[in-house]
Amino acid sequence: MPYFDTASAAPLHPVARQALLAALDEGWADPARLYREGRRARLLLDAAREAAAEAVGCRPDELVFTSSGTTAVQAGIAGALSGRRRVGRHLALSAVEHSSVLHSAAAHEAAGGSFTEVPVERSGAVDPAAYAGALRADTALACLQSANHEVGTEQPVAEVAALCAEAGVPLLVDAAQSLGWGPVAGRWSLLTASAHKWGGPAGVGLLAVRKGVRFAPQGPAGERESGRAPGFENLPAIVAAAASLRAVRDEAAAEAVRLRALVGRIRSVVAERVGDVEVVGDPERRLPHLVTFSCLYVDGETLLHELDRHGFSVSSGSSCTSSTLEPSHVLKAMGVLSEGNVRVSLPMGTAEADVDRFLDVLPGLVAEVRERLGAPVSAPPSPAPVASLVVDALGRRCPIPVIELAKVIGEVPVGATVTVLADDEAARLDIPAWCEMREQEYVGEEPADRGSAYVVRRLS
């Protein structure tokens, strides 16, 4: 069964498994103790730290191990903000950061601080000049991911880091998705990562803090990991994480070329065979193994279940696959279609035959889901036109509001409008995206007694 969701968690690398089993026998003792077993454990911990630091591109004494990537992000943000509290309490971040960064920003604001979200272009990347514009005299910290976890777009970290350095603001880089593929370029100040993203065991994160960065660990003081990660180290998992990071780096160059070609094939073939689909993210400046696309008139949860039934494990950023009506904050920030969203992230070693079978199966499944929802197969006929229409889609979740819009747009003359009443938050994103795909004009959103009224003008 092809597993195509390595952006969530990569399969355990064989080297990680071997190192984990060996460390269970040799690394169970307290590395802080001076007796033989403790010294042996300490040697393993030091070797793991040196290997991880080499991969990150920092000094071993600048890197600590945490209990997860999220913990690393939260500790990094809190420590940097506290260390620079005399400068100010402002935080800058991109609008497409991982939820751990967004949650940290919200907690910081609740505690009396402030933050600015830098918008992104439709590709998902920030404009370095726009990011620089968000830096203020009281900015204590800036955050920017190295590559996006939902659409794979690589961020201009080196450019932003240079601008942050010029402004005297430290930059924290969340490198969870990219570190297995190579080091992060640029003059970053703090870096975080998570082992289960590159094939290490879950429960191990990395936090690197460059020398010279003001940093004050928050919470009760601890004696381990320079006081930045409290608690007893999970030494076997740390050893396995460091060993697997080195192993995947050795394989990365060749696999990146091979997987980039497979992802390129998915990007082109999906657009050719499926129809009414938007492939999102930067087509060039992207991670080699990840592609995301959104299908008009498709219930994302149903599509994912159908793909699973046919043996493919994929994920989605669509609101149709969640328990809330909120679409993915990443897709929302990009202004792209969210309904029928599918994220494919290929693990190292993915067979070309599995990708081909996925591309053979997908079009038929999308067609089946659309048929169940009564989506239009082709442009509807144009009977005697009316001046304008109102479509009541209140109480109906995506993709129904867009499907109902597509059914009636041909019933109004060119220049006339269709107003869609909807209370599904995803409509705020998907109706403008449909207009761009269909070359119709999105007039805007108006208040309504319930939900919102989305006005579309027919152009063709």
Output the keywords:
alpha/beta, 16% strand, globular, 460 residues, 4-stranded mixed β-sheet, 7-stranded mixed β-sheet
Portion in beta strands: 15-25%
- Intertermini distance: 44 Å
Number of helices: 12
Please state the overall shape, judged from the principal axes of the Cα atoms: globular
Order of helices and strands: HHEHEHEHEHEEEHEEHHEHEHEHEE
What class would the helix/strand composition place it in? alpha/beta
Helix content: 25-40%
**How does the major sheet shape up?**
7 strands, mixed
Query: Radius of gyration, rounded?
Result: 24 Å
The average pLDDT score comes to 92
Stretches where pLDDT is under 50 for at least 5 consecutive residues are 379-384
Number of strands: 14
Strand order of the largest sheet: 1-7-6-5-4-2-3
Put the structure in a nutshell.
The chain is of the alpha/beta class.
What would you note in describing this structure?
It contains twelve helices and 14 strands. The relative contact order is 0.12. It is globular, with a radius of gyration of 24 Å. A hairpin with a 4-residue loop joins strand 13 and strand 14. The protein has helices at 14-26, 36-56, 69-83, 99-110, 128-133, 157-167, 235-273, 300-309, 329-334, 352-373, 400-408, 427-438, and strands at residues 63-66, 90-94, 114-118, 139-143, 171-174, 190-194, 205-209, 277-280, 290-295, 341-345, 388-392, 417-422, 441-447, 452-457. It is α/β, with parallel strands linked by helices and 460 residues long. The strands form three sheets. It has a seven-stranded mixed sheet, sandwiched between helices. The protein has a four-stranded mixed sheet with strand order 11-12-14-13, with helices on one face.
